[in-house]
Hints:
Distance between the termini: 56 Å
Structural class: alpha/beta
Strand content: 5-15%
Largest sheet: 7 strands, mixed
Order of helices and strands: EHHEEEEEHHEHEHEEEHHHHHHHHH
Strand order of the largest sheet: 5-2-1-6-7-11-10
Radius of gyration: 23 Å
Amino acid sequence: MKHITILVPDGQTNLSSVACIVGSYEMFTRANGYWSQTAAGKKNGTKELYKIELAGVSKKAEFDNGLLTVSTHVNISAISKTNLIIIPSLVREYETAIKGNKLLIEWIEQQYNAGAEIASMCTGTFMLASAGLLDGKNCSTHWSAADTFRTLFPNVNLQPDQLITDEYGIYTNGGAYSFLNLLLYLVEKYYDRQTAIFCSKIFQIEMDRQSQSAFTIFTGQKSHGDEMVKEAQAYIENNLHEKISVEQLSSIFSVGRRNFDRRFIKATGNTPVEYSQRVKIESAKKAFETSRKTINEVMYEVGYNDVKAFREVFRKITGISPLEYRNRYNKEAMV
Length: 335
């Protein structure tokens, strides 16, 4: 029988970690049961396709200072081979969480090198990246942890707009309860589409979600030490009604265009143009959420004069149109 291992980290976790662990166990157990009743399962002749186990370095792990305790089925040392490893989310003190789970991280690396696939949920990506398995690869994590992740793991190609990434037997996903979408994705890969559809109906999760862009709150990377770039960021944010060119910005701060671009990208992870677009669209999103202004009114307020251009940039950043966004988050605007 094939094997799925759901990791139970030893500390450095919270109630979201429990949700990931319980959700994974429930969905794969339900998928096992359904698959065994389908034509594919009956043809296979086995009661269950996968053995699903909670594994860790301790028999029990406490969450949120003992508020909840989760017991493991097995110690990782007893698992010689597994097919899929699932890593739940971690606490926000990521570096501390990594240091507190060194044994798990070493085991993850050994199993991957032996042929196991790995799926990390939300900020579990930090544990995966610390094993060195994401260097040069694409991955996602919660949008709010993106800046910290880039700082700690500069050799990883972070894709914070993506809900799910799938590369070289490694799966990652965005934040919070979007781990349920990753689980559906894995059920389809490890069982079949029919079983995934069944699980989506049982657990009431939308199929085939691809982006977390609509949920992102853009605040801008400000933890860098480049004071000139911080001043440029402030200028962009305080003048979002204007159309500001890169030449204008570099001139204001008496820096050559190419050098300005290089410093800005290095500090923020965005080009000056991308940063300006994100600031403008974030302001537009707030207006759509809190007012009954029309699309055109909001567009003019954030410095756009071309409806087509505004819609294209808005969709590029959020994944949906301005009208769809307003209707989703502002009930009064629909009246």
